[in-house]
Amino acid sequence: MQVFLGPDYDGSFTLGDHGSYEWWYVDALSPDNEWGAVVIAFRGMPMSPDYLVAMANQSAPPTEHWGYAVSVYHRGVRIAQAFRGVDGSNCRVSEVLCDVTVGPCNMYADAERVSLVVDTADDRLPNRVQLAIDLVPTIVPSSAKAPFQENHAWVVAAPSAVGTMRVCISDAGNVLVREQVNVRGYHDHNVGRCPMQNDFDDWHWGRYHTDHGVFVYLGTNGCAWAGELWEGYADVWRDVTIAPVERRLSRFGLLDPRRIRVQGVRRDGTNGTVDVVQRNVLDDGPFYRRYLASWTIDGTPSGFGMSEYMDASRYRQAWIRPFLRLPWLR
């Protein structure tokens, strides 16, 4: 896994022909943790049941398998979701920066702003979700310019941002929820030249906004990355380990890691330990869980942030496809 910092790497990459993928991710969480949202725009959607079938048939160009995922949370519970495939004629990306349209999902990001607008209006969906997130990055990290040389890359484009989120949820024209809140946000971007399941098993990720910056980690096969980022400064830890301390069996048979311990050495030589207790399960499925997690940094309780666990190895297994199709609409 190659790690890039900053918006210079946020444009689309050249993908492979079979089973490759790319996604752009934005999350937002209000300071009191009452409201939150996650939106992901995909080019080559790894968990699309259609894409998995195409991969099994050795015919899976990513530009034929676009999609998006939207979740809205209130008080630690998901209150709305859309998980959809989109025809490629309604999609576009930029090679220069994050300027992405996937059907009704529009995402833009540069060093000055991160903006997202999505409207899931569709008769086949139980609710219509209209979501707008407008953020100003407070941290704009940067990497020395380097070519993409590995099979997979992670772009930490805007790890800390502040702004507003507006959400309207309706059913048959009746407004169920209308809210505008201040939020802290995060934006990143993942890409792979080959299927995720070729190289990855467990996938652990999380972010927590500190008073002055953000702590981010990603752990999967061959990659254990953690760092504390401030404006103009990145303390990328070395000798990092990211380990589940406690696992429980979920209702979908996942060995769910309810606590993650991140350890490493800071730039100044001091040891760091971060414990992430994944308290509220926000999204729950046969391959993936998202959490509202409490964070303890070097023994000091520090607040709440987002985290996730994905079992990418399950994409290799044919039995999972019917379960993925349940929420899938195309």
Which helices and strands appear, and what pairs or packs with what?
Layout: E1 2-5, E2 21-29, E3 35-43, H1 49-56, E4 66-74, E5 77-86, E6 91-92, E7 98-102, E8 105-109, E9 114-119, E10 128-139, E11 152-171, E12 174-192, H2 196-199, E13 202-209, E14 214-220, E15 223-230, E16 233-236, E17 238-249, E18 255-265, E19 271-284, E20 288-297, E21 300-311, H3 320-325
Parallel strand pairs: 1-11
Antiparallel strand pairs: 2-3, 2-12, 3-4, 4-5, 6-7, 7-8, 8-9, 9-10, 10-11, 11-12, 13-14, 13-21, 14-15, 15-16, 17-18, 18-19, 19-20, 20-21
Description:
- With 330 residues, the protein is mostly beta strands.
- It has one domain (2-325): Beta Barrel (AttH-like fold).
- The protein has three helices and 21 strands.
- It has helices at 49-56, 196-199, 320-325; strands at 2-5, 21-29, 35-43, 66-74, 77-86, 91-92, 98-102, 105-109, 114-119, 128-139, 152-171, 174-192, 202-209, 214-220, 223-230, 233-236, 238-249, 255-265, 271-284, 288-297, 300-311.
- The strands form two sheets. Strands 1, 2, 3, 4, 5, 6, 7, 8, 9, 10, 11 and 12 form a twelve-stranded mixed sheet that branches.
